[in-house]
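hey m, so remember when u said the tokens were messed up on ur end? i reran from scratch. heres the input so u can diff it against urs
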Amino acid sequence: MSGSRLRIVVAGMIAADPFQGGATWAVLQYLLGLRSLGHDVLFVEPVDAAKLRPEGTSLDASVNHRYLVEALSSAGFDGDHALVDAATGAVAGMTRERLLERCTSADLLLNVSGMLADPALIGSIPVRAYLDLDPAFVQLWHAQGIDMRFDSHTHFVTVGLGIGESGSVIPTDGRDWITTLQPVDLPSWPVADRLSIDALTTVANWRGYGSIEHEGRTYGQKVHAIRELIEMPRRVGDRFVLALAIHPDETRDLEALALNGWELVDPAIVARTPATYREFIGGSLGEIGIAKTGYVLSRSGWFSDRSICYLASGRPVVAQETGFSRHLPTGDGLFAFETIDDVASAYAAIRSDYERHRRAARAIAEDLFDARLVLERLLIRLGVA
């Protein structure tokens, strides 16, 4: 492990869209993992103060800041944080002067989606790594002329394991993308001991953001993927439970989901906080991981931060193929699927020897996704460890 204590700034989104337990964990894994390596970690999040809840409230008094504080505390992160008004520079969590001092003395910035852009905060940090958690979409948006805030960074990191590989359709624009597995803080995700949902489950948004047209192909969202797999429960003959954020006006799709046997639960309840999200995953038989069609068509090699939490909990994962099977072991605890028949075979295997696949799932998490291992490797590749 690294022999020196680094001063690391992690920028990401927790407060801006509160009560999203899964999205919160995606950031927490980095904070907890880096801290467990012995580093001094500061979390910074820029927000649009006009969108705080309730409207017109201050940073300190907002629901957003309260959620951030509770989420960090509940996960056991005892490092510092700063919520920053992106327009005025006002800060909650510490003084502006203290924030400038911490950033000025930092060794590394891990900047999710490049969202922290204030030159006064990041300009003096010697290693500024853009952290891409949405591979293919980020690179395609940039190729279409959208400013993805690449220019202020010295390094580029992606969880798209296929980016830069021979034959990849994802444009790199000449950048050397460092590929990395996503981390899971294993002490926060112990093997689950209570099964409450005897079904493969997942947590998903029906629609996220717009699809992308690139060179005659459409790189779409979760809605497009599930529509192609709509017959899955009826054809497999087993249970599938979706914690699905879908607008009630999507009546045609809701009817199709019901007719084909999908069971829906409210993510605003089961995935509202980091704790309820962890409980939902741990209580599930395993995961049916359905990917955005953009990840599938691009063969980005994306593998979900949510799926890693299932694996760590000792819950097998059946995940839609994005090219990740070129990099991860499949067949025990983790299955890649391209067709409904593939899902049926995987589900049958899990049912036939569940304890074996539980053990294999946890072993994959320990061997490959342990935050201490993943992040130490990343720090080495960034040249700071």
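this time it looks ok to me. The first strand starts at residue 7 and ends at 11. if urs says something different then somethings off w ur setup not the seq
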